[in-house]
């Protein structure tokens, strides 16, 4: 009993440590030039790179937010859930976002933990596994900074991932315990439909694979036992409804034509996106190595029991989902490396399940000596990358604070000239590498008419701003 209480306390302490670390990074990360300042205003119905007009209005109410998203849906894109969150937090302020976003980052770690442990929602955590999950997210996420720290990016990737995994947890539990009744009441079924709509309305390259997987799961479950609860249907239908709303937004077509014109060469797009795909796979390399090693070990297990077969099947499914979420981006109009985040999370879940299986079935996924060696290397890697990242972010924080001070002075002095500011130093290649690629550039343009500069100037109520020219 005492040992269990200590484990619970250690698990809670681990989550506090993770939250605190994320909060420090969030606190040191300023608003991103470009998207964050642009989305602080009611959407004007123009292209993203079109400068804001002089009469642009900051969002200051829920009615403003609704109007902005209505225009955004019909003129730019269907990610209404993500951009509603982004515009809400930009309205409320970065300080509030820092507090909540750090919590959501820790919540993702908890959700991954629950998925690894058969979808059981419990608040008794093994701290070592929590630390491992966070380390995996830190080390293997393509574009950790724009996914976890950049306000608009976090709402588009971190938050939507948490929403989608949250929907999947009861389905994972049902996969392991098909005979158990969770909650087959009408209220829960309605709640799952609503959650499904929200989850389906989140991300293009991930939801489609979840829909396909759930469709197969429901079909197999229906043929085997017919033990399908109402909430499973309503959640699935809601997911489809949300995905339709996401994909068929009129703004998607407008943006596609604006970026690629009336002719969209899929083959050329496939070739261009190939480099981004390879970078994502490179980031995930160690995860794929251990996953393939797991499949090799399982293939040589004699007399495989039903439990191991079920676990292996789920790991196979998650691996396919992960690869599919990343691979489908090869045909996307644009492939930012952070789009590989969703596939990485499901890959981490698959590795976590494999790690749990090796203990339960006494298999050796990795030798003890190698495990200790990798643990030491992992600790060294985390300390090195986090120290360099925090140091760089602190310098950027101080630079940004001085920038805002100059902007406020310029506004108070009612200057009508262009405010010229010094750019923040660019990190060298060695620094970027030793940070684990967590360092990203964040600055204005040398052109005062650039849309990012204009959005910044409108936000602070100054005439114009630009960086010093070399």
Automatic annotation (TrEMBL):
Highest taxon, organism lineage: Bacteria
Keywords on record: Membrane, Transmembrane, Transmembrane helix
InterPro entries for this protein: DUF6056
Spans through the membrane: 12-29, 95-117, 129-151, 157-173, 185-201, 207-223, 230-250, 270-292, 313-333, 339-357, 373-394
Keyword Membrane: yes
Protein name: Glycosyltransferase RgtA/B/C/D-like domain-containing protein
Native species: Succiniclasticum ruminis
Lineage of origin: Bacteria, Bacillati, Bacillota, Negativicutes, Acidaminococcales
